[in-house]
C-alpha cells in the first residue's frame, strides 16, 4: 500500500494528464454513439429517409479520418495538450450544434467539423498515454479505451428519456383514477413531427462536457511550455532503450495491428450505431427504447469487462486471457448469426459475448507493439486512420444493406468478427515467435505496480 501511495505521489502530474485523456475519450465514445442511439429521431427532425440519415455516420467519420491524418503533423508543430484543448472545444461546440438544425446539409457539416477534431483527439490521446507511461502503457491504454466504452455506454442511457415513440408504438400511462387496477395502454396514432424531436439535448450535454475539459488541458499546456525541452530530452533518452528490429519484422507487426484496428473500429461502429435500429427493423420488432437498451448492454460489457481483465493479468498469463476473449468473440458471432434475427434471448446473449470479447483487443494489440517498437505520432496515425475509415465505411454499407434486408446486419457482424479473430490470433503468434514476447506481457514488478494503480479500468 505504501508503494502505491508513493507511486501516486511521484506521478501526480502524469496521472492528472492521464485522467484528462480518459475524460476526453469518454466524450469521444459518447460522440461516436450519439448518432446510432438517435438516428431514427434525427430522421424525423431532418425529414429524410433512413438510408439518407445514416449518411451522417460517414460524414462524421470522414472528418475523423482527415483529423487522424493531420494529427501527426500537428503533434510535431504544436504542444500536444494545446492541440487537445482546442480540439475538445471545437468538438463540443459543433457536436452540440449539429442536431439543432432542420436541414441535413447543415447537420452533416457540423458533424464533419466535430469529427475532424475528434480524429485528432483519437490519435493524440493514444500517443499521450504511450509517451507518458512508455513500457508500462498496456493497462493504462486499456483504461483509456475503457473510458471510450463508458462514454458509448453513457450515451444510450442519456438518450432514452429524449427519444419519442414512433407511430404505431404503444404508450403505457399510469392510471389517474385510483379505482383502475391496470395502467392505461394507448396506441400512438399521431405521426411525430420535427418539432417533437428532443434528441438534440443529449448532444448538447456531451458537447458541454467536452468544452469544459478543454480548460484544464489549456492549463497543462502553460505548465509544460516552461519545461518542454526537458520533456523532449526524456522522450529521446527513453526511445533509445527500444530494441532495433529489421524493417520487415517491424512492418509486419505494424500491419497486423493496423488490420486489427480497422476490424475492431468497424465492429464497434456497426454494432453500436446500428444495433438498436436492427432490433426495431428485424423480425424481433423491439421498440426503440428496448433497442437502445440492447446497445447499452453491449457497451456495458465492452467497458466493464476490463474490471475483470486487468486484475487477472497479475495472476494469469495475458495470452491465456486473450485466447478466452477470442472464444467469447466466436460464441457471440455464432449465436447472433444463427439465432439473433428471431430470438430475443439469443440477441441479448450474443451482444454480451461480443462486448466482452472485443473489449481489450485493441489496447492489447497496441500495447504489444509499443513494448517492442517506439510508437511515434506517425505510426499511431497509421494505426488509427484505417480504423476510422472502417468506422465510416462499414456502418454506411451495413445500413444500406440493412434497409433492404435487416438480417444482413448479422451477416456483416459475423464476417468482420471471424476475420478479426483470425488476425488477432496471428498477432499473438507473431509476437511469440518473432518478438519473443513472454507468456505475460507485464515484464516486471514496476510495470505491475503502474497498472495496479489504475485497475478501476
UniProtKB/TrEMBL annotation:
Keywords: Membrane, Transmembrane, Transmembrane helix. SUPFAM superfamilies: MFS general substrate transporter. The keyword RNA-binding does not apply. The chain crosses the membrane at residues 15-35, 81-98, 104-129, 201-222, 252-271, 291-309, 321-341, 347-367, 379-403, 409-435. Pfam families: MFS_1. One of its GO terms (molecular function) is transmembrane transporter activity. The keyword Metal-binding does not apply. This is Major facilitator superfamily (MFS) profile domain-containing protein. It comes from Tetranychus urticae (Two-spotted spider mite).
Amino acid at each position: 500500500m505504501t508503494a502505491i501511495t508513493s507511486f501516486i505521489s511521484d506521478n501526480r502530474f502524469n496521472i492528472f494528464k492521464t485522467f484528462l485523456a480518459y475524460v476526453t475519450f469518454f466524450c469521444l465514445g459518447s460522440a461516436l454513439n450519439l448518432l446510432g442511439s438517435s438516428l431514427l429521431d434525427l430522421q424525423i427532425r431532418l425529414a429524410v429517409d433512413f438510408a439518407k440519415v445514416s449518411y451522417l455516420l460517414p460524414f462524421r467519420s470522414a472528418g475523423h479520418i482527415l483529423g487522424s491524418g493531420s494529427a501527426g503533423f500537428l503533434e510535431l508543430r504544436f504542444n500536444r495538450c494545446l492541440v487537445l484543448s482546442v480540439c475538445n472545444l471545437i468538438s463540443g461546440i459543433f457536436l452540440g450544434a449539429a442536431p439543432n438544425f432542420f436541414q441535413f446539409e447543415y447537420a452533416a457539416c457540423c458533424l464533419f467539423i466535430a469529427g475532424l477534431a475528434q480524429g485528432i483527439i483519437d490519435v493524440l490521446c493514444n500517443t499521450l498515454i504511450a509517451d507518458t507511461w512508455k513500457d508500462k502503457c498496456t493497462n493504462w491504454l486499456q483504461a483509456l479505451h475503457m473510458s471510450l466504452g463508458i462514454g458509448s455506454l453513457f450515451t444510450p442511457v442519456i438518450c432514452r428519456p429524449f427519444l419519442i415513440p414512433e407511430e404505431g408504438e404503444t404508450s403505457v400511462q399510469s392510471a389517474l383514477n385510483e379505482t383502475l387496477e391496470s395502467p392505461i395502454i394507448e396506441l400512438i396514432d399521431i405521426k411525430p413531427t420535427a418539432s417533437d424531436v428532443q434528441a438534440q439535448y443529449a448532444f448538447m450535454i456531451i458537447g458541454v462536457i467536452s468544452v469544459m475539459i478543454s480548460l484544464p488541458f489549456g492549463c497543462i499546456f502553460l505548465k509544460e511550455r516552461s519545461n518542454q525541452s526537458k520533456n523532449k530530452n526524456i522522450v529521446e533518452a527513453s526511445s533509445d532503450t527500444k530494441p532495433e528490429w529489421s524493417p520487415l519484422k517491424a512492418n509486419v507487426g505494424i500491419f497486423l495491428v493496423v488490420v486489427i484496428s480497422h476490424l475492431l473500429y468497424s465492429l464497434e461502429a456497426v454494432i453500436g450505431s446500428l444495433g438498436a435500429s436492427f432490433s426495431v427493423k428485424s423480425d424481433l420488432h423491439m421498440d426503440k427504447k428496448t433497442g437502445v437498451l440492447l446497445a447499452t448492454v453491449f457497451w456495458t460489457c465492452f467497458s466493464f469487462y476490463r474490471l475483470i481483465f486487468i486484475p487477472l493479468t497479475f495472476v494469469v498469463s495475458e495470452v491465456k486471457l486473450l485466447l478466452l476473449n477470442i472464444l467469447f468473440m466466436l460464441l457471440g458471432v455464432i449465436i447472433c448469426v444463427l439465432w439473433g434475427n428471431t430470438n430475443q434471448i439469443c440477441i441479448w446473449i450474443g451482444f454480451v459475448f461480443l462486448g466482452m470479447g472485443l473489449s481489450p483487443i485493441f489496447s492489447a494489440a497496441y500495447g504489444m507493439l509499443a513494448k517492442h517498437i517506439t510508437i511515434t505520432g506517425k505510426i499511431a496515425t497509421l494505426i488509427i486512420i484505417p480504423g476510422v475509415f472502417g468506422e465510416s465505411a462499414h456502418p454506411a454499407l451495413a445500413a444500406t444493406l440493412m434497409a433492404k434486408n435487416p438480417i444482413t446486419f448479422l451477416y456483416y457482424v459475423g464476417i468482420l468478427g471471424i476475420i478479426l479473430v483470425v488476425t488477432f490470433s496471428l498477432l499473438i503468434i507473431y509476437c511469440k515467435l518473432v518478438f519473443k514476447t513472454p507468456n505475460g506481457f507485464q515484464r516486471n514488478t514496476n510495470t505491475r505496480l503502474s497498472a495496479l494503480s489504475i485497475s478501476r479500468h
